[in-house]
Amino acid sequence: MGKRTGVYICSGCEIGKSINIEKLSQTVTGEQNITVCKNHSSLCSVEGYELISRDIEKEKLDSVVIAACSPRVKTGIFDFPENIICERVNLREQVVWCYEQGEEDTQMAAEDYLRMGIARVKNILISQPYIADDISSDILVVGGGITGITASIEGAKAGYTVHLIEKEKKLGGWSGKLYKQIPYKEPYNKLIEPVVKEKIRNVEDNPDIKIYKSATVSKITGQPGKFEIIIQNGQEQKITVGSIVASMGWKPYDANALTHLGYGKYKNVLTNVEFEELIKEYPEKQLAKSILFIQCAGSRDKDHLPYCSSFCCGTTLKQAKYIRDLSPETSVFIIYKDIRTPGLYEEFYKEVQKDDYLFMTKGEINEIKEKDNKLQISIKNTLLGDDIEITADMVVLATGMTPAGTEDLNLAYRLGKGLPELKYNFSDSHFICFPYETRRTGIYAAGSLRAPMDIPSSMEDAKGAMLKAIQCIEATKRGEAVHPRSGDKTYPSLYLERCTDCKRCTEECPFGAYDETEKGTPLPNPTRCRRCGICLGSCPERIISFSDFSINSVSAMIKSINVPDEFEEKPRILVFVCENDAYPALDMAGRKGLKYSPYVRIIPVRCIGSINNVWISDALSKGFDGILQIGCKPGDDYQCHFIHGSELTETRSENLQETLETMMLEPERIKTEFVEITDYYKITEIINEYVEAIEEIGPNPFKEI
Amino acid sequence: MIDINPDIEFKKEVKRLSNSSLNECIQCGNCSVVCTLAPDDSPFPRKEMIWAGWGMKERLIVNTDIWLCHQCGDCSTHCPRGVKPADVFSAIRQICYRHYARPKFLNTILSKPIWLPVAILIPVIVILSIIFMAGTLQIPEGTVSYSKFFPHAWLNGSFSIIVFTIYGFAISGLIKFWNDLKAHYHDTQPKKGFFRSFLSTINEILLHSKFSSCSAQKSRKTSHLLVFYGFILLLIVTCFAIVATLTHNYPLKFTNPVKIMGNIAGLMLLTGLGIMIINRLFNKKKYGNSNYSDWLLIISFFLLVISGGLVELARFMNWYYAYHLYFFHLVCVWFVVFYLPYAKFGHMLYRTIAIGFAKAIDRQ
Amino acid sequence: MSIPHKKPTLIVGGGISGITTAVEIAEVGKEVILIEQKPYLGGNVIKMNNYFPKLCPPACGLEINFRRIRQNPRIKYYTSTTLLEISGEKNNFSVKLRSAPQYVKDNCTACGKCVEVCPEERPDEFNYNFSKTKAIYFPHEMAFPAKFSIDDRYCKKESCNKCVEVCEYNAIDLSAKEEVFFLEVGSVVFATGWKNYDAGLIENLHYSDFKNVVTNVEFERLIASNGPGKDKLIRPSDNTEPEEIVFVQCAGSRDENYLPYCSAVCCPASLKHALSIQEKYPDSKIKIFYIDLRVSGRNEDFLAKVEENKNIELIKGKVAKIEEVGETKNLIVEAEDVLSGKKIKHEADLVVLATGIVPSDATLNLNKDQNGFLTEIQKEGIHAVSCCKKPMDVSSSVKDATAAALKAIQLTG
User: Fold this and answer.
1) pLDDT tens figures, B285-296
2) Residue range of the domain that includes A3
3) Residue A22's domain is classified under what CATH number?
């Protein structure tokens, strides 16, 4: 269709010195479909902006191509009305700053990038947001422990109706079973009443919080803005909510696995949870003369829980204080690996330590025996300089926490009933910067379901997760994506008539956005979508597209590139880069003046997982000699913001390489590499080495065709 | 493998005497490193801190390292938890005197201010009885001559008997200490002869070499040297005086070299003690906690020197109160000399033995 | 009572917590104003080489956050700006702000011409003064906003004028003055963050005396590929690459003489540094002296990774003494290995002090706890968040900031 496009070329920041602007303009003016093409010495100046704005009005432009600096800078200036498509061609950072001034190759690169920009503009549309009707602003909280209760109260305080579901008869969870709680602010020398007590009253008195006790979720369908929930509590109830906070909490590590510490073997070996219950029930009970705590019982242990549960050191110190407060004659021994009382808890540690009847040492438990109704604990590697044996009346094992699991959410999702888990079954985010990053849009895990944590930390976590739940509803109302492409108004549209039910998209979507008919036809849930485009990359039938990112838009860019024939000895390499990390890395390489081969043409993509094979074949038939895909690190410490985008690309490329071989092409013509955003030295090396390797292999034989 | 059976009373006593919240120790080992006297292998005082925290009395009182410490206070100054290992060591040493005290009550009466009247009353009664027996129990008329009040033979005779008796008891305690050390370190073969070790120990004591390496308190070496040599000098002067009562025309003239030496010794002691008192009073953070036992020793000493000086002056000036002062001086002598092995002053004996032993087993 | 026009939330401090609070509020659909006293956003984290436990660069998450700021019309930000005064009550605060003189205007294209002509140098604060920049400088390559700054303590102003003459965009105004202005806001969030404890105060570790004793935050720059050594880790005394490196945990922390509390981040940070060194220099030898290894939760895996590494030794014992070897400027570090009960004297090329977190200096008179941290609720409508409130790591700060965003939207409705 005929767009009215204006092209603006900036000659500032050395661009004019490095590139022949006149010649560059001619590549455009030769094209009939350009309404207007102008140069300016500084497009980012007020005059530059006015020049473009005037043209938009006068020439009735619907799209502009700005060939100047990186789209990552000057965004505040090049801010045009929403109905104008604005494409930035990165002449400064990725041409002028990284290529030799005035060289033919530099000019060729600039011309190609300008053509690619125009090609893209011609093949994309203004996004029309997807806004569902009857978006619910209610929020479901699953699990009524300290996390769920806090989340509910805070959500209601922000003006949202909250539905709180608890499977037990009583609210409060584990924190409701506490005798006392560790002080989390001054003064540190007194244990406090469990904060959950008052919170339970608040939640029960709050008219904006609907509580369902002895209730379970039997089914969740739908998507953010409109989750349909079936609640089972004697009868079946249906509610609709906009988003969900999952706070099902934790369960103690099964101490039956700790027979080597005497659990199950000797009746006076208890877990910290059992001990807490005992004290809560019988605070008056006469305690034995000596009690020994074993820290990290089944924690920080390859055979049990490999992680640290964060709360046990504090809990043991607290329980030691119970004993000392209640029973002045009882000695308390604590055998630890490290005492972990981070932050201001150090103050509490010091307080408890003051007691004369407290004996602490680092050490490893050798053996626990029972003799004359007493327990004999032998300990090695102590700080006392000797192996020791302690006789105690009772042993308390400081066991850790395991997440309660999320299967109880009963998500009717193609990808499973629960939330995806990261490690050790915690439904945690993998991003340090984004702890609430979720792989099930609109559902946010909070509290010890997400990571081992104590009460104050769970309360903070509850607020954070509740904010994200609220935010998701509001973004959905605006038709915008949530993190990491927050604000993106595009969404995938599927041309289902051509769908072959191959299920690639439904399997590969990292966020479970697609449900599936029995036949296997995808059922999109646009508000679950995070706009990574992995489905677009996965689809062999090429039926998935976004308004500003589609098979055609990228194909057109590829096709617009001028590929010299083999006699010119100027190979062409197509480089797909992830726009989150690799693209900024190239910008910074430019800023640092690092040089790389001018034979590459760079196309940024949402995630390298969104690269569709058809673009590779387009590029090969166009005569490109090699295709390089640069994304974020996969693996255990993945940095791909779309979880497994880069991993998928690696697998897809391996398959493609096999195909290349059947076509008598060298598999090296496709390569996948991974960088971090700060790898600007490395990324230029990767590019240069790849270009060298391709030069060695020789030109793509399809060039002649 | 050792059985743990914490002696909580011991722990409480260490805490009381040291005024240290020793349980707050986090076993970081900072103290062992800042201590310039601690050997590289099993340095102190980190390990002793946990032993004290675990009430391991048996292990601590026979531990040579308790005596290797010269209480410079570097460890306390740098302790991240403010648990004052130096004071804990001092407390353990005091418990050690008590443990080996023969008869026990002599330590008991020196351990708490409440017993002070008893501690004073004993010498008062004993001295009075001796004077009574000598038949001179009245303030003599005329020029002051102390032998009129307390004949030299009676004084020297009775005090010698008391010294030998008390030290006889005390030595039995020291022998027990020695045997306990041997038993405790039975695994460690002495590498040097005990005699050589003691010679080297004496040399070390005479030079005060260990004091120089402490950095927290610079004036400590000076004051301790002054007191130490002042005391030695006084002892010599006293011995000479005892002999002189038999051989010379006693009392000696003021110009007698021995007399001058005695006065110099007194001044040395006074200066040293003065520095100690000022430091303890005004620089608590650095000099650590001063408990009753510390003050008892310093004050007894101080009074001994002051009263000694006054006694001399009184004779010269022919004061009426000369004999009262003399009596008071004798009580001070009793405190410093007879009570010596039972309280803090016992460190002269215990430390010498422990360091000698430590040298023999090559614990440096 | 309904308020006809909702006022924005003011966020003081543009580090990771302030940025997070701002974008999280704005993405709910509310207005925010973010102020930062430095000329760039990103606070302390932008200076870090990487995050534990993933060893990933902070710039990655910040890039996403900067994009969130760029595309969101509800976020206004002011750099080089400080808060002078708050008056009023919740939903109706008036704040007085001061912007440092804007010598370089917003129309700076960051082309870099000015740097070529600038004759003056300044110590590079971004690299903890290990290197120098010109008096007109680009704070660092990731700088957001991407524009130059002038350090007026070093710039000779109009008497030099070289940058003004060379700037094609008329973007430099050396006569610029500071501006004081007022804004109406509904609530205020303090995200003023932290600075590291002044290691010079710990006498026995000789940070001020020995060049090769550096702090952990300085080490972040030393090992960073955009640090003073470029892609190399260099030690300050002679710019050589150290082979024996010692980390001193609890340098001043958990110590009544200095910082009584634990800063919660130094243990994993040192483990991170150790692994980063090993990645760059697999033959290097590293010793970490600690009291307790405090790497809670999932970070335990991170500790396990370090324990597996044969070139990294973890020794329980606090370093109490550091001495310098005269000629080589190497350092002798002394500690008791409390598990073996032996004193260790180890010679190292570089010593890194794991110093703790102390709250940044506040410009206003705010309520503080005994350690100088701000109390969470200053008054209704004024909250403190993350590291100015208590020591915490990045992930917890972000979590706390997200929670603070909820508090803010509750207040402004």
Assistant:
1) 777 778 888 899
2) 1-126
3) 3.40.50
